[in-house]
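Supplementary Note 2. Why include the ligand at all?

Several targets in our set were suspected to adopt different conformations when bound, so apo predictions alone were not considered sufficient. For every target with a known small-molecule partner we therefore ran a joint prediction. The input for adenosine monophosphate is given below.
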Amino acid sequence: MVNPSTTASLSPKAPVCVFCASSLGTSPIYAAAAISLGRSLALSSTPLIYGGGSKGLMGLVASSALENGGQVHGIIPKAFLVATNGEKGEGASSQEEEIGKGKTVNLEGHKSKVTVVGGMHERKTLMSKLSTGGFITLPGGFGTFEEVMEMTTWSQLGIHATPKPIVVLSVGGFFAPLKEQCERAVKAGFIAEKNLSFLKFVDGPDDADWGALAMQALDEWVWDAEAGYRGLDWETS
Ligand code: AMP
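The joint prediction is reproduced in token form.
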């Protein structure tokens, strides 16, 4: 499917965005994978871009990256801060002044950069712009599904300046149905087979070193240069 002569790979130190659950899930294998991923990003000097929350798998990836000396940049909509800190809470009001800028804060005793944005679309646009190294997905719910599918759609439409790797970590087989759904859509004529090259599904045993598998998948990711639409002018439209 992929022609190696028309492929591209990316710098391993470019920032990478992680999409994942804002909850922990029912099995400890998800938390272990999140901690493994945060560690591998830090140890490979790959800055983490993420949703800025401290809950669930999101919080574990970030705290693991920070504990291992990594750089972390959270992009969080103001509404989540208000929900966490209260409309008049000190955290919410001081963060409000920083909208769009990026501010270094303490997250669980470690220094982390946080940018507060106005809403979810602004957040995703900024996350995408900053994540020149691509995206990694851990298990999650609707929010995670939406994020990974939107970034895949942006690859397909040529909205990313160049397609970026989208690595999907199928911890405990979690994403097998999504992979199957994509293949089903190819068979049904709704997705061009070459466009499957945007997504890299990664399988492994439950106790795999998911961080190492993710970094390897980023390094090895190739895309079919014929995939997706090219030449649409998203800058001026
Ligand atoms: P889900 O997979 O449904 O748990 O959604 C994960 C996504 O939900 C994250 O990437 C965020 O976009 C968003 N999210 C949910 N709760 C929070 C929170 N407290 N702080 C930041 N982001 C959150």
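The first strand starts at residue 16 and ends at 19. The longest helix spans residues 28-43. Comparable summaries for the other entries are listed in the accompanying table.
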